[in-house]
C-alpha cells in the first residue's frame, strides 16, 4: 500500500476475519465492508483479490480533505477513492456513499460482510442495534461469512446505549440459520490518541464471526437412486 489509513494503528481483529475468509470463500469472492472509512480494510481486501463493496456515509473519509489530528495539528487526509486509485485497486471496489441504515441492498447477496467499530456511532442510535445487525445478516448469502468487531461498554454512558454491546448479547440474533464460529473480547486497554479522539482513551472490543448455514442442496428433476 502506498498510503496509510488514518486508523492504521488502532487495535483490530481483522486478521481473524481474514483467516476465516480464506478458509470459507473463493479467492475472488465479494466482501461488503460497512463503515469503510478511508479504506484500512478495503485496500488489503482488494489487494488480496476480493471484490469489495465499500459502504460509508462520511464524505471526508471517501473524498479526503482537512482533518484534525492529535497534537492540535491539521493535515490533508487522502480519502478512500484516491487511495484506491493510487494503488490501482479502484476497479475492484464498488463505493457506496450512503448511510448503511438507509441504503438499498445490493442486487445479489455477498459472500462475506465485515464491519469495524461502526455501529456505536451516534448517527446509528436512532435505530435499534438489532436492525443494523439484521441488515448486515441479510446481505450474506447462505454459506457466507459475517464478521464484526465492535466497542464494548467501558464508561457509564456506554451502558445506557445498546450499541455498545457484547458477544453474548449479539448471539441472540444468530440462532437458526447461523453457526457462530468465533467470539473474542479484549480486557480494557489504552488506545493512543487518533483521529476523532485527541487524547489517549480506554476501550474494550469484541469480535463476532458467524457463518450462514448453506442452502439445502436442490436436486432439480433428479430422482433418488
Ligand atoms: C471508527 S471508523 C472505522 C475505524 C476502523 N476501526 C478502522 O480501523 O478503519 C467507523 C466508520 O463507520 C462509519 N459508519 C458508521 N455508521 C455508518 C452507517 N450507518 N453507514 C455508513 N457508514 C457508517 C463512520 O462514518 C466511520 O467512517
Q: What is the gist of this entry?
A:
With 225 residues, this protein is α/β, with parallel strands linked by helices. 20% of the residues lie in helices and 30% in strands. The chain has one domain: 3-Layer(aba) Sandwich (Rossmann fold), CATH 3.40.50.150.
Could you describe the 3D structure shown?
Helices cover 20% and strands 30% of the residues. The protein is an alpha/beta fold and 225 residues long. The chain has one domain: Vaccinia Virus protein VP39 (Rossmann fold). The strands form 3 sheets. The protein has a 7-stranded mixed β-sheet. It has a two-stranded antiparallel sheet with strand order 3-4. The longest helix has 11 residues, at 14-24. The radius of gyration is 18 Å and the shape is globular. The model is unreliable at 218-225 (pLDDT under 50). S-adenosylmethionine binds next to strand 2.
When the domains are counted, the total is 1
The tally of strands reads: 11
Order of helices and strands: HEHEHEEHEEHEHEEEE
End-to-end distance, in Å?
Answer: 54 Å
CATH class: Alpha Beta
Range of helix content: 10-25%
What's the rounded overall pLDDT mean? 93
Indicate the CATH topology. Answer: Rossmann fold
List the strand order in the largest sheet. Answer: 5-2-1-6-7-11-8
What ranges have pLDDT less than 50 throughout 5 or more consecutive residues? Answer: 218-225
CATH superfamily: Vaccinia Virus protein VP39
Number of helices: 6
Give the radius of gyration. Answer: 18 Å
Beta-strand residue fraction: 25-35%
Bound molecules: S-adenosylmethionine
Largest sheet: 7 strands, mixed
The CATH architecture: 3-Layer(aba) Sandwich
- What structural class do you assign from the helix and strand content? alpha/beta
What coarse outline follows from CA principal-axis ratios?
A: globular
Amino acid at each position: 500500500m502506498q498510503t496509510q489509513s488514518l486508523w492504521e494503528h488502532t487495535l483490530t481483529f481483522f486478521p481473524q476475519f481474514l483467516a476465516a475468509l480464506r478458509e470459507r470463500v473463493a479467492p475472488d469472492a465479494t466482501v461488503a465492508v460497512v463503515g469503510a472509512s478511508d479504506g484500512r480494510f478495503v485496500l488489503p481486501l482488494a489487494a488480496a483479490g476480493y471484490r469489495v463493496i465499500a459502504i460509508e456515509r462520511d464524505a471526508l473519509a471517501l473524498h479526503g480533505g482537512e482533518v484534525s489530528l492529535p497534537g492540535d495539528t491539521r493535515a490533508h487526509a487522502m480519502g478512500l477513492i484516491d487511495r484506491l486509485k493510487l494503488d490501482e485497486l479502484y476497479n475492484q471496489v464498488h463505493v457506496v456513499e450512503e448511510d448503511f441504515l438507509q441504503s438499498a441492498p445490493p442486487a445479489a447477496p455477498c459472500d462475506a460482510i465485515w464491519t469495524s467499530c461502526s455501529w456505536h456511532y451516534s448517527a446509528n442510535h436512532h435505530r435499534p442495534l438489532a436492525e443494523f445487525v439484521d441488515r448486515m445478516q441479510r446481505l450474506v448469502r447462505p454459506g457466507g461469512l459475517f464478521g464484526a468487531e465492535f466497542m464494548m461498554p467501558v464508561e457509564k454512558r456506554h451502558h445506557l446505549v445498546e450499541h455498545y454491546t457484547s458477544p453474548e448479547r449479539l448471539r441472540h440474533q444468530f440462532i437458526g440459520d447461523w453457526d457462530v464460529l468465533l467470539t473474542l473480547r479484549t480486557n480494557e486497554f489504552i488506545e493512543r490518541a487518533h483521529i476523532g479522539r485527541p487524547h489517549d482513551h480506554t476501550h474494550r472490543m469484541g469480535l463476532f464471526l458467524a457463518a450462514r448455514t448453506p442452502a439445502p442442496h436442490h436436486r432439480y428433476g433428479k430422482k433418488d437412486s
